[in-house]
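Comment thread on ticket #2218

A.B. wrote:
> Attaching the input chain for the structure job we discussed in standup.
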Amino acid sequence: MKVVWDVDGPLRDMSRFKKEAMLRAGERLGFKDYVERYDDKTVWKSYGLAQLLARRGWGRGFEAWIGLFWGHAEKGLDIRETLSHPQPEKIVEKVVKRPPKEVVKELQDYVHSKLEEGEKVKNIEEALELFPNLGIITASQPGNIPRWLKRHGLWNYFRESEIIEGVENKAEAMLRLAQRYGSYIYVGDSHSDLEDVIEVNKYVPLYMVLVDGMALEGKVRELLENNDFKNLVFAPNAYEGLLRIKNILKS
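C.D. wrote:
> Ran it. Output below, let me know if you need it in another format.
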């Protein structure tokens, strides 16, 4: 069994830069003080809700993300309560605002400028040694991931792997790998990742490690209740999750 990785969350920690980016947007639109209330982890998780909005047709990810914070700030709502709600999209639909395009572009450009500075997740080498690594699937700009892997001493783990960057439809890319190589383990950190794995699992059986990150607990429960997907392991990090799958496969 081999492993396919999402990058941000499981491999690379971008939470500090995501908060810095939102602070910049908040300064432009008047809600910087609101963003400062929250820690990096909360701001990171909020991007998972923005992904959900984007998948439901509300703009693109960064646009929805700014609109999410801006709307919550103006309504005086605690974004943590929305993130923990069983159906957060019902709250968000009433508060999200459409941000100016130039602010969206500034935030996006800032995040992209920091991609190579993102820190590798603690003890990630231990996780990378548990299974052969089949590849990486990411929406990051083409060319970014090899440079980042080399900068952080991880390139040897992926030298023979498929690195698929600039992906808009992750499920399609995941399915192509599965059709070519068969079953694998996917390591992600969002309910959107889980949604994609469940879709691909209809055609080729997959395992998944869902690490603590952007996943919204209510949406994860909903997905599992409505789909027959059993090969899921929740874990605080990739190492613990992959170790559990290794033990499952041995038994």
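A.B. wrote:
> Thanks. Noting for the ticket: The two ends are 14 Å apart (CA to CA).
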